[in-house]
Amino acid sequence: MEKFKSLVDAAVRSRFSDLHIAGDHPLVFRQNGVIKFDKRFIWTPREIDALVKSMLNPYKLGLLRNRHSVDFAMSVNRTRIRVNVFNTSRGLSMAVRILSGRVPALSELNLHGSLKDLCNLKSGLVLICGATGSGKSTTIAGLIDHINRTAATHVITLEDPIEYRFRSDRSFVEQRELGSHFPTYERGLLDVLREDPDIIVVGELREPEAMRLTLDAAESGHLVIATMHAANVWECLYRFCNSFPVTAQDLVRYQLSTVLKAVIAQQLHFFADQGFRIPVLSILLSNSSVCGVIRENKISQLESVMQMSRAQGMFTFEQYRTEYLDNQKKFISPSWSTCPNPGSEDEFEYESSLVDPGALERPKAFSSDAGNDLFQESPGFFSDAGSFQERAGRHYYYIEDDESGPLEDVIKKLK
User: Fold this and answer.
1) Average pLDDT of the chain to the nearest whole number
2) For 183, how many CA atoms within 13 A lie in the half-sphere containing its CB?
3) Which domains does the chain have, with CATH numbers?
4) Which pTM value belongs to this model?
5) What integer is the mean pLDDT of 353-365?
């Protein structure tokens, strides 16, 4: 563990964004978006096993044994890191994201000043999209920090995992982690509406049900800030709408057009003259033209709408770079990320004795014990209306379809 702590300290000083540790392989790190190797640091598979064991509590170790991977975040020498441990042909490997010693201020992130306006919204949906490692979480952290310092609100986050740790300032900030504090984003979104929030932050939208509940939360008068993996604004909205069945897409587009406030697509580009990476944004703000395009399912026309709406604060990636970044005389170095968090030593994780954390990770459909080919039924999984279970030899067949018809028809389909 001491070796790992020294490595994290060195990564922070050298401004690495990621570390990759694999058995009997040189250390791999990412600097300014480029993968590099360092042959001075080689970990044996047994060393990695020992390191992982020292970092995980029994619950997380159980997840690793059962799923062969586990996500978690922690503070190392007052620097926040996010870690994914996963099984490979070399044994366990670790992907470590260096976050920061403290929550960044919005003004330190080299973002367009108009993003502060999003913090003044009282309701609606704001989507932040981009590829993995494009800085979505950091941008959202800056937005929450600004809200926390300037507004008296109740902020609840649903994250996977918790990356930046917030302390309440003017706002009351509560953070929940997927797998530790709630079982699914769907359950978390159902719960959060009963927890008196003003602002809801959703770590990532993937499933249609979570998207539907996000729309419902925005419609009910809350400000919802959520992330999606998408390369640009129109791909983000296209993926959002087309995640639903065809019969529901018209309603979803109508809902989305009424609650959407902004879509921010983000990339990180290395600027050689500055010596570090700077966010390049594409900004879509809701107006009557945008609402009409979404409702009429003409999302491919959004880029044209953005180009013609520059006066309203919209940017394509190209416009943002030429009209904003190229005219900036000074950028702020990401040295804030190397600053220690003076309060991080007081961080603690309390697990209530009234809660069974292991209950959040029950097998979803079936499980198989080592050396045993007989699948064990997961209690309660097949109890939903419209579900049907049939044992055929050693296999389970699971159908969930509201239009399946009578049981006899379902059995015929199985045969």
Assistant:
1) 85
2) 12
3) 2-100 (3.30.450.90), 106-332 (3.40.50.300), 365-414 (no CATH)
4) 0.78
5) 61
